[in-house]
Amino acid sequence: MTATADNGWALSITRHIAAPPEKLWQILTERQAEWWCPVPWRAEFLVQEWYAGGRTSVVMHGPDGEEHPHEGIFLEVTPGVRFVSTDALVRDADGRYIPAGPFMVGCWEIAAEAGGTRYTATARHWDEDAARRHAEMGFDEGWGACADQLAALCE
């Protein structure tokens, strides 16, 4: 997908996964650490509050010891269909929403298709520069590897 202003500066990947939606959703949400980032990276999920407004906190660990924390909130959680999160807001210790340095809105969706499931992951960005930077960081390769890892777990 080409990122444009009309599509919210979106980058997206999709895969048909030969598994039923119920299985894919279970692995998508309950086994995130196993597919969330491309090997040899790994993800450590500190908090996942699976409801709209709930906190999401993950630290990505690189093979050379680097750490990249990601804080945000869920904007939507529709079981069996999609979850959407953003780093544009975080929640403080008192539960207040605090604006943060936004990079993207991420959307992970599934739908029954052809005896399996269509998986689509989309990152929407605030502007063209952010979308370009994400593409240059290796969006297609990285998010594609994650989709392949998810498929391997499900199939």
Folded structure, characterized:
It is a single chain. 23% of the residues lie in helices and 42% in strands. It has a 7-stranded antiparallel sheet with strand order 1-9-8-5-4-3-2. The longest helix is centred in the last third of the chain and has 16 residues, at 139-154. The radius of gyration is 15 Å and the shape is globular. The chain has helices at residues 21-30, 128-136, 139-154, and strands spanning 10-17, 42-48, 55-61, 67-78, 82-86, 89-91, 97-99, 104-113, 116-125. The chain has one domain: Alpha-D-Glucose-1,6-Bisphosphate, Chain A, domain 4. Helix 1 crosses helix 3. A hairpin with a 6-residue loop joins strand 2 (42-48) and strand 3. With 155 residues, the protein is of the alpha+beta class.
What is the overall silhouette? globular
Helix content: 10-25%
CATH class: Alpha Beta
The N- and C-terminal alpha carbons lie at a distance of 25 Å
**Number of continuous helical runs:** 3
The CATH superfamily bears the name START domain
Quaternary assembly: single chain
Number of DSSP strands? 9
Q: Please indicate the percent range of residues in DSSP E strands (runs of 2 or more).
A: 35-45%
What is the helix/strand order? Answer: EHEEEEEEEEHH
Short description:
By secondary structure, the protein is of the alpha+beta class. Helix content is 23%, strand content 42%.
Q: Secondary-structure map with pairings?
A:
Layout: E1 10-17, H1 21-30, E2 42-48, E3 55-61, E4 67-78, E5 82-86, E6 89-91, E7 97-99, E8 104-113, E9 116-125, H2 128-136, H3 139-154
Antiparallel strand pairs: 1-9, 2-3, 3-4, 4-5, 5-8, 6-7, 8-9
Helix pairs in contact: 1-3
